[in-house]
Amino acid sequence: MSRIIAAPRHVRRLADCHNIDDFRLLAHRKLPFPVFHYIDGAGDDEITKLRNTAAFDECDLVPNVLAGVEEIDASVTVMGKTTPLPLMLSPTALQRLFHWKGERAVAKVAEKFGLWFGISSLSSVSIEEIGAHYSGPKMLQYYYHKDRGLNAALLEKARAAKFDAVTLTVDTIVSGNRERCKRTGFTTPPRFTPASVLSYATKPRWALDYMLRERFSLPNLESHVSAGSGQAISIQNYFDAMLDPSMDWKAADKLRDDWAGKFALKGIMSVGDARRAAEIGVDAIYISNHGGRQLDGGRAPFDQLAEIVDAVGDRVEVILDGGVRRGTHVLKALSLGAKAVSGGRLYLYALAAAGEEGVDRAVGLLESEILRGMKLMGAKSVADLTRENLRRR
Predict the structure, then answer these.
(1) Averaged pLDDT score across all residues of the chain
(2) Cβ neighbours for 79, distance < 8 A, ≥ 6 positions apart
(3) What predicted TM-score, i.e. pTM, was given to this entire model?
(4) Residues 111-139: pLDDT tens digits?
(5) DSSP result, 306-375
(6) By the number of CB atoms within 10 A of the CB, which of 69, 245, 281, 289 ranks highest?
(7) CA distance 131 to 126
(8) DSSP H or E segment with residue 78
(9) pLDDT classification of 4: cutoffs 50, 70, 90
């Protein structure tokens, strides 16, 4: 089970990382255990988190040969932006807790590869800074707060920073039950307890970066709330106290109108919700279960992909989010009709392991896997990947 990690004896430096699981092992070496388990953990028994990746194994690729694949094109167009790869870097919170450069490192790599990059409402680098210093397609992942002033301020910040899209996360009306965080006492900012202080002390590089570099904060929020910046709080308590469980389709429709730009919903898992999203005119939906952090025992995004594409794929762009660890996972999702594939842990482990260099290596490895896989599949372009290339076991 993924929550039990073997001692990473063979992965001691960046050069030892040849896949996403290797970065996970190196991150385990580098991070205090409360921080690592925040990245790695999920809800309840973590069945859904495991299923997110395992689902890809139940579908096999069927290649075509003699296709003349000396030149291939892996580009896709999503929400009006063409990117060289069908890969998006999902928005994730608190990144400067994992490495002191945080979102700056990820944004720089996304810019280099020309990929969509999302920052969270709970990002540790401001919307303004990301907008001012990094080119390429950018989105704000939007949490719907009880504080309506904060909600309006987030939209205005994204608009002023010329972000290309807003993505409303719809599966966090309350927090999932993140038992690893409860056991480790993880909070943001970290609260040093008798149970955790030894872990922090035995990771001196992390501790020195945290204590001596810029103060950790959540700059998009701190003008409205102290929780998470000046006041230590668990993510579970933050979601339960700050996010608005009354959020509904009317609120999502109003937010789309208020933003008046490219707009997506993240956390769609049912065909009915996908149809409703298409009806209100969103540009894209992320099939996502929040990396298994919310409702445990739910379906994997890949399990739901085909029926959602069949229902709404001609009206809204469908993005698969969750469980992606290999280039072949990307190819399988594209073959079922996804416009692109997005992931968070696939770069967070690398960020924690080696900062910007780690993220660069992880994205580079995935790029190589995608391009190699397309050639081996006999696909000159993403359009050549169809359901004829897949068989369920």
Answers:
(1) 93
(2) 116, 137, 139, 164, 165, 262, 264, 283, 284, 317
(3) 0.94
(4) 999 999 999 999 999 999 999 999 999 99
(5) HHHHHHHTTTSEEEEES---SHHHHHHHHHTT-SEEEESHHHHHHHHHHHHHHHHHHHHHHHHHHHHHHH
(6) 289
(7) 9
(8) strand 76-78
(9) very low
Compute how many other C-beta atoms are within 10 angstroms of the C-beta atom of residue 133.
Answer: 12
Token code pair at residue 57: 């194994």
Q: Is 290 a catalytic residue?
A: yes
Which value, in Å, is the radius of gyration of the alpha carbons in the chain? Answer: 20
User: CB 215: neighbour CB atoms within 10 A?
Assistant: 10
Separation CA 130–CA 144 (nearest Å): 21
DSSP H stretches of helix in the chain: 20-30, 33-40, 47-54, 103-113, 127-133, 148-160, 179-184, 197-201, 204-212, 235-242, 249-259, 271-279, 301-312, 327-335, 345-377
User: What's the whole-number mean pLDDT along residues 68-78?
Assistant: 97
| Tens digits of residue pLDDT in 156-203 | 999 999 999 999 999 998 999 999 999 988 888 888 777 677 888 889
Angle between helices 345-377 and 103-113 (to 10 degrees): 20
Reference 346, options 11, 5, 23; nearest CA is: 23
Look up residue 386 and give its two tokens.
């169809």
Encoding tokens for residue 286? 């992320």
User: Do 277 and 263 contact (CB within 8 A), yes or no?
Assistant: no
Of the candidates 28, 37, 145, 290, the residue annotated as catalytic is: 290
Q: Determine which helix (DSSP H) or strand (DSSP E) holds 390, and give its type and residue range.
A: strand 390-392
Q: What CA–CA distance (Å, rounded) separates 125 from 101? A: 9
Tell me the C-alpha distance between 241 and 258, whole Å.
Answer: 25
Q: Minimal CA–CA distance to 134: which of 157, 104, 158?
A: 104
Q: How do residues 43-55 score in pLDDT, each as one tens digit?
A: 999 999 999 999 9
How does pLDDT run across 277-331, given as a tens digit for each residue? 999 999 999 999 999 999 999 999 999 999 999 999 999 999 999 999 999 999 9
Half-sphere exposure of 87 (CA within 13 A, CB side): 31
Q: How far apart are CA 252 and CA 356, in angstroms?
A: 34
CATH fold for domain 14-392: TIM Barrel (3.20.20)
- Residue 391 belongs to what H/E stretch? strand 390-392
